[in-house]
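DM from R.C. (forwarded with permission)

"hey, sorry to bug you on a friday — could you get me a structure for this? deadline for the figure draft is monday and I only need the backbone to look sensible"
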Amino acid sequence: MSAATTLNEPFNNLEKLPHSPCVTLYHRNGRVGCGTLERGVMTGRLLHWSAVVSNGSNESNAQSSLPPYVAVLDEADYTSQTIEMLQTFSSNFVAGDEYGPVTDGGGPLRGVLVLSTDPSNVDGVTFPSPEPLTPQGDGTPMENLSVGSSYEWNVNNNGDGLTFTDMSGLPTVYVADSQTAAYLRNVASEQANSISSDLNTAVFPSVLSEFNYYMGPSETTDGTKVTSQQCLEWKDLDGSWSPKCLPLGGNSIWAVAGTPVPLGYTDNENANDNNQDRPTVILSASIDSTSMFHELSPGANTAASNILSLLLAAELLGSSIKDEVLDQLYSRITFAFFQGESHGFIGSRLFVKDVIGGFECQAGNEGIPSVLKRKDEASTVRACLNPLRTDLTFQNLGDIRGMIAVDQVGNLGGGKNLYVQGGTENGFDAFLSEVMIELSANGEYTAQASSASNNNEDGTASLPPSPVSSLVKLSASGAGGVVLTGYDDAFVANSLYHSHLDSVSMSQSIDKDAIAASATLLARSAVAAAYQNENNEVDAATAAAYALNLLPNAVSSSSTTFENIYNCLFSDGNCDAFVKYASVESANDAIHTGFNLGIGQPLGKPPNFYVSVYNHENGQGFVAASGFKYGAMDSSAEDKEDYVKDYGDNENDAILLRPSLLEMSLNGLLNDFLGRGSFVDSNDGTAPDLVDCSSSNDCSSVSYCSSSDSSELAAISTCAGGKCICGSRAHYHPAVDEAISPVANEAPGWFTIDENDQGVSAMITEPFWSSFVGVRAYNDAGTGVGIYASISGALFTSICIFVVYRLKKGLVKEKVY
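My reply, with the result:
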């Protein structure tokens, strides 16, 4: 774009301004985010925000009405303080009608344009985090879910709290393109200068911005706050049920190291014990992120670094230790990638609740075959129709002994210190902390105990937002764990926590070696934790030595696997590697179920880790029975429609799922990385050459997969990422708020509040968007120009008529007409 650019070029003929919106989210007690007051557009002239604030301090400028304006500001200035100043000033006035009629009763502030920073001026600029000082803690819809909700983890990032501010009536968008942003910045400054100190001056021509971003009401007609429950259960005036939003959600992915977990139901006193009665140690990570502009949630440090470190830990463990060795450990090792953690620990809470709470299926815990026509095949998982669970294998995991989570290990603030959060009490948590410190003692990157204060009422340490919080809360502190982090007692300064700038292509700096060191430490710590016996008689030094003996090699940041996955998570979410893994998973599912649902929501380029809404196109499991789709199914319900048949009446009945590209890739990667421990070595003792494949059909003749006494699944070869591996170990688990349930015998996408809701979850939902939303910018010359043009047109027409009349008269005289 040249310096002489006009409006036509950057705004696509004045119709659309490229942008990413701040949208509305509803929660249990109200709403947060942005949107117009009513369904109509909100329009105003572009003014730099500083001009509005400075004029606002001059009381002599106060008027009963002001010409509408749109505040333009740089992203570094987009803070709750700035928004409060703008809203406070605007609240003293009503919007004038200089740029069209205003019917919503709002003030002259009609919207906000947030502009990307000039790349040449980024040095020395501080970008605040939009999250509060207490992320997912006090003052947020998630405050009942955190361990130590008053602890200020986000203090070094100037935690701003804008994320949880209700800005209804203030549509806001972000303009990322630097050249477009520069143009808008200049226009806003010039127009602010042209009005001098009098905001009441309506200057023409003016460049205006028009927002069409209605995101639903804040209150009902009787003044009641609109909440997620009201939004999900909304009824029109005629009484018909018409939901106006969807919950946030997707799928978590979990997988075991060692022999695959049995798929069949084990009928013993504790439905969640497996037939080996082994507890499990979970290694976990959050796989989502967020920002003020959900379409821009790159999550380089808050999501991608977590995922990469845990994946590489799985690869190191799976490629180094045989299944039979892992099976001899006291505890089973489970890897868990939890979805929706940024919005109330959605994935981890439902998973932990199902595992330790003893999930009860309405029709019996034995469940039903997920694919009816394959009910007799060993690889067919069990499912539950109501509440819907596409896979009940989690019932066989055993008790959760403890959890190790990983968080923000990509940015250590320039140092080489990792930190262990938690583990300050006696017991298994303390053992985990000691083991991690012991294992890293001689490394380039060392782990040490966090100095975070023990400020809880019971004297225990606060935990940063992580899946460990879900385990501690849901087990009533009966089980817990530790979190491996890249920060000590607060997030690293300027680490862009949940910012749209948390990207390697923008302002984030990522230490690849720190991620590799974290992966190595996680894998070794998992082995040491699983080695600890029932009575906690093994000391940390002994357990650490055992783990080092089994895993002498370390993860390298220069390895091909590291570089390939790094590219996918940090640069190109639709990379060839992810597409390959997801395509194979999709092909396997199509062969097994008879339904080809394809690959779900792409991750994007650059990647976007926002969790998305939850429906059958975006991760919600559903029942396909007798030609109909259901979010859950109860054929015994007395009020069911006649077309609702029993599951099994049609031989093609199946439970289906369409995960996102990221979720499918993680599922395939875990099958690949952890499925190599069952290989039967070649005669010379080396690992076998893996057979190429495009689906599980290509692996039927593989001979290098062994079986074990505890499971025949390890002998069943499958395809993962283009190679035949042994035994499917990865499973999906729904990630949706524990209080929200799909409605039985209704289509997917219809939800209600669970009758057993405990009233503690955040219950985040996102309203439906209109297909007409957007922002445009254009020149407005004012009504005077229009009147002048009309008069000129009328005068010109009169002259033309007179000329034609005289010409006709002359032609008649000359007998030509």
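R.C.: lifesaver. Confidence is low (pLDDT under 50) at residues 1-5, 57-62, 268-275, 785-789.
me: no worries. The longest helix spans residues 783-813.
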